[in-house]
């Protein structure tokens, strides 16, 4: 079982390597690619409390980027190039936010790009840093103006529980462990060889949620509904604690994405489940996990306005997703995105 690496492991490696922020790093590189949760921890530790008071916007941006370089072990360039994204090596953009209205100009949200969103107070003091993947950010857009939106259709049949993929993809199948006990692991930790259950075992454990009910927080509270289901899933899988860092996939430790459906349309955001794009996790057995390797748990439920009751459960790999759930065609484009961040986004 792979030991979780300390954040400074990456910082020291980068510092000794002589790499710049413009030198490309393969996603999942075990020595230099900083996974999103670790990136968030490093930036919070270094940037929180930083004063940007009195700086013009351009100077403020340069100060923030300079501090990020120092935090991650990179040399500070003489001048910052206008690249997309601004930090190509770790593939992320930065946004300094005083309000909850995030604006992304003149480009589509990227599936695998990380977005570093820095919250500052009215006094221009950095309070919190949040790192989110493009797809996670797209899910927060309530205006219907996503740059790209994948959708599929869920049709329930006679079976209440369906295991669409009997086995994991080749990438994951060599890393699973049927005898694994999850009690001492965290749902948000990185997946590793020997620390993942087979998809068939996940199916056996989660099918017990059919018939389970929980309070309905309302149609305008999808995040809370999802969190309630996420908590039940963690418990059924065997974790002793519940954790959710808002990243894709929901249960990062098991490469498991959870979707609660009260309607037939499945919103997939920027993630096309059968995509071969790399997932933002360290390599396992020298193989990079891709989006098509992710396990998707879909729970169909009914609600009477007070209580949500799970009636059907489906489990599939991303690779086999569209063999059961037909994909809608088409996408929506927009030059500017205005994404209202939820009130609890930085909590």
Label this structure with key terms.
347 residues, alpha/beta, 2 domains, five-stranded mixed sheet, three-stranded mixed sheet, 8 helices, 12 strands
Account of the protein in words:
With 347 residues, the chain is an alpha/beta fold. It has two domains: 7-145 and 334-340, no CATH class; 150-324, no CATH class. It has eight helices and twelve strands. β3 (114-120) and β4 (126-133) form a beta hairpin. It is globular and about 65 Å long. The model is unreliable at 331-336 (pLDDT under 50).
Question: How would the blueprint of this fold be written?
Answer:
Layout: H1 7-17, H2 36-47, H3 57-72, E1 92-97, E2 101-105, E3 114-120, E4 126-133, H4 134-138, E5 150-153, E6 161-163, H5 170-173, H6 199-206, E7 213-215, H7 222-237, E8 256-261, E9 265-269, E10 295-303, E11 307-317, H8 321-324, E12 336-340
Helix pairs in contact: 2-3
Strand-residue fraction?
15-25%
Radius of gyration: 20 Å
Report the sheet with the most strands, covering strand number, pairing sense and barrel closure: 5 strands, mixed
Q: Which structural class is indicated by helix and strand composition?
A: alpha/beta
SSE order: HHHEEEEHEEHHEHEEEEHE
Helix content: 10-25%
Poorly predicted segments: 331-336
Work out the oligomeric state of the chains in this entry. Answer: single chain
- Note the overall shape: globular
Distance from first to last alpha carbon: 31 Å
Number of strands: 12
The overall pLDDT, averaged over residues, is 87
In total, the number of domains comes to: 2
Tally the helices: 8
């Amino acid at each position: 079982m792979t030991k979780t690496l300390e954040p400074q492991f990456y910082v020291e490696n980068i510092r000794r390597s002589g790499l710049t922020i413009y030198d490309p790093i393969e996603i999942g590189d075990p020595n230099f690619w900083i996974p999103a949760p670790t990136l968030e921890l490093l930036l919070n530790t270094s940037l929180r409390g930083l004063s940007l008071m009195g700086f013009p916007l351009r100077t403020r941006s340069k100060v923030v980027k300079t501090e990020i370089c120092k935090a991650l072990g990179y040399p500070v360039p003489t001048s910052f190039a206008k690249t997309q994204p601004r930090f190509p090596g770790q593939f992320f953009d930065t946004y300094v936010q005083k309000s909850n209205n995030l604006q992304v100009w003149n480009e589509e949200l990227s599936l695998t790009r990380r977005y570093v969103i820095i919250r500052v107070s009215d006094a221009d003091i950095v309070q919190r840093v949040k790192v989110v993947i493009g797809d996670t950010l797209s899910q927060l857009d309530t205006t219907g103006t996503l740059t790209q939106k994948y959708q599929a259709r869920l049709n329930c049949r006679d079976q209440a529980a369906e295991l669409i993929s009997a086995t994991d993809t080749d990438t994951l199948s060599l890393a699973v462990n049927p005898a694994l006990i999850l009690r001492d692991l965290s749902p948000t930790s990185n997946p590793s060889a020997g620390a993942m259950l087979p998809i068939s075992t996940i199916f056996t454990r989660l099918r017990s949620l059919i018939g389970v009910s929980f309070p309905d927080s309302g149609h305008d509270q999808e995040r809370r509904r999802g969190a309630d289901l996420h908590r039940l899933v963690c418990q059924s899988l065997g974790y002793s604690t519940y954790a959710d860092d808002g990243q894709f996939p929901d249960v990062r430790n098991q490469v498991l994405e959870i979707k609660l459906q009260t309607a037939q349309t499945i919103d997939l955001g920027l993630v096309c489940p059968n995509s071969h794009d790399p997932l933002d996790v360290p390599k396992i057995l020298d193989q990079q996990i891709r989006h098509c390797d992710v396990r998707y748990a879909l729970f169909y439920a009914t609600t009477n306005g007070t209580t949500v009751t799970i009636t059907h459960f489906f489990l599939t790999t991303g690779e086999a997703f569209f063999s059961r759930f037909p994909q809608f065609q088409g996408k929506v484009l927009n030059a500017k995105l205005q994404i209202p961040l939820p009130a609890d986004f930085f909590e």
